[in-house]
Queue: 2 jobs
Job 1
Amino acid sequence: MKRNTVIGLLMALLISASFASFGEKMIKPLSEHKPVLSDTFKTLLANADVAKGEMTFMRKCSSCHDQQQEGGHGKGPHLWNLFGRKAGSAMDFEYSDAMRSSGHTWDLATLNYYLTRTDAAVPGRSMNFRGIRRDKVRANLLAFLMQFNDNPPALP
Ligand code: HEC
């Protein structure tokens, strides 16, 4: 390889590495950031496919979480009445200090933000699941989860 090619490649690597770490830093913890839903995401929610959301829940969440009213805690806390709950506050579940002290309340915006990158949204959380990248998949999942509440949240 020519020397210029090597230098060019190195530069490209450096630039992409710094962009990557910049990207990571952009995700602030929920204790410092109040997320809002984008219009695009609101549209996805309004058109959500609840059956697909249920499939995602069954595949990715149900091994640790129960969402039914008559259910309870598993490896993860009971998700019935999640909306409106202060993070880390369900009775009789042993949360991480990180979750207990993160200070936010679960609503569509905080849940969407958390499920995008759980480790960045609540650093130190004990939930062994990194996140769901695709907006549409998250929107379907949220639409499914909304149903399992005494007072289901209204669509934004
Ligand atoms: C490997 C097990 C596991 C999987 C898979 C998992 N979770 Fe969790 N989840 C946990 C644990 C453990 C906690 C408690 C985290 C803590 O205390 O830091 C938790 C916490 C949560 C909380 C916070 C609840 C509260 O009371 O504050 C939400 C919301 C949540 N999970 C949703 C989900 C969803 C939705 C999925 C599927 C996309 C999922 N989890 C997948 C184990 C899991």
Job 2
Amino acid sequence: MLPRSNMRMITFSFAALTLLSGACNEPGKQVVQADANADQLYQLCTQCHGQQLEGNSEIAAPAVAGLPAWYVESQLEKFKAGVRGTHFDDIAGMRMRPMAMSLTAADIKTVAGKVADMAPHATPPLLDGDPARGKTLYAPCTACHGPVAAGNQQLSAPPLTQSPDWYLFTQLKNFKHGVRGANPKDITGAQMRPMAQGLADEQAMRDVIAYIGTL
Ligand code: HEC
Ligand code: HEC
């Protein structure tokens, strides 16, 4: 065993060395800074989305852990630009918007990568729906979201299996009633809107979501 003072010396010189090599080596330094920034940005998200980004239904903040970086980026950009989260009926979207507005384009890229790296959370179903009826209703959805709802980046369609059912329900209602996807600048939202409009009523939405829950 080394005496405590020697240990401290070693720890100190190791820290100094790391700093020094960081300063001499530009790419290394950038990585260290980017990581620190990613953690700081991430902490902001946990206030509403939870420590592991598992979501908090009480404030309508969905689980976002493990959503693909391209989708998280696209949505943060939409919130920031007011393409999403500005409709007067979109209380939850308005809660998210100021956060996105405080982020720079670089922040958005960094934090989206961090969100995508988190493990997705399984959330217990809260809604009643008939998955057998939902299976038929899901058939047209496969064209964009895929047969197991894993999403399709080429079509800008996100995975649906990682999001809690109450959140999917809200979004289908939002799309149907023009609370989301009706902004003229929302190109990808406009692709989704008619699909939600094609679901006859809230029971149809519950059914299709129940089926998504089995995938
Ligand atoms: C003040 C609370 C709050 C904070 C802080 C917050 N969010 Fe949100 N976020 C929400 C709410 C509420 C929603 C749901 C909006 C809706 O229903 O349309 C949301 C929605 C989202 C969505 C859309 C999810 C989807 O499936 O379309 C993403 C992505 C997201 N947040 C990422 C983040 C990230 C990344 C951070 C940190 C930089 C963050 N949020 C910080 C409250 C918050
Ligand atoms: C033509 C392609 C297309 C079809 C078909 C389609 N969607 Fe989508 N969907 C999208 C796109 C694109 C988005 C992302 C919109 C955006 O960028 O805001 C989306 C978003 C969603 C969302 C919001 C997810 C989130 O995390 O906020 C839900 C829920 C959803 N779709 C469910 C469905 C269901 C259920 C069906 C079948 C009834 C369906 N979609 C059919 C393209 C499609």
